[in-house]
Specification:
By secondary structure, this protein is mainly alpha-helical. Helix content is about 55%, strand content about 0%.
Length: about 300
Amino acid sequence: MQRPFSKPPTTYAQQLALLRDRGMQIDDQAEAEFYLQHLNYYRLGAYWLPFESNHTEHRFVEGTRFRDVLNLYLFDRELRLLTMDAVERFEVSVRSQWAYHLAHRHGPHAHLDSSLAYDVELWAKNLAKLTKEVKRSKETFVRHMVRTYSEQLPPVWAVCEIMTLGLLSQWFNSLRPMGTRDAIAGTYGIDHKVLESWLHHLTTVRNICAHHARLWNREFTVIPKLPRKPQELAAQFVPGSRHIYNTFVLLSHSLDIVSRNHHWRGRLVNLIEKHQIDPGHMGFPPDWQARPPWNTGVDS
């Protein structure tokens, strides 16, 4: 049975006193109050949860320090930024390939042709969303094309520049011609169903990062489909995992194709080492450093 919420708000000093009572070591009162002021007690709670020995009583493992919690928080923040960097590069590439192959195979305004759709109703919804984005856009090139040409929307190579990753994922999902789907996915050396799954999964990952939510130990409900071939790529993934590790593998593979000299893997490994994070919480297998793609050197 539900009851009214009766807990009063607490001051930063009271919050620190509560953490001390539960066994957390506060080395610098002023520093801790500063971070509570700007990060929020409730937000940091997700990061001291792994340090609890008894979640029901919220007791901390002996020796837990506030700075340990802060270190984990800062790691997760940097991890989100690094992940967004990779997602952005892959997203821009897929948008480019989507526009190129649609235009060359089906015409500059292929996105207006519902005969290319698996589901005409879904295609219409996607078109309505895209039309709304075009009307909202302040981009000079979009306004110029809307004023100059008579078509309902600008050509596919222009509108792709204002599409969200979520909308791109839905457009690819609803695209029917197998030759076009295969041509886009083939750029990344994967099957079209795998690319469809990756786009869906990365939409979730991107939204988590964009809303500054916890990433490092999250278990995903929308997981990427693992490729069966090429075999050397398939062997890099951990079957059945719901953690971020498989995301890192697919991003690593994608960056090798879309970005030259990206050094992204090295940046990820260095970040883990800098903050002394147990990668097992992210789904990394125990022998991960001996496995591709991580055994190619930290500067790769």
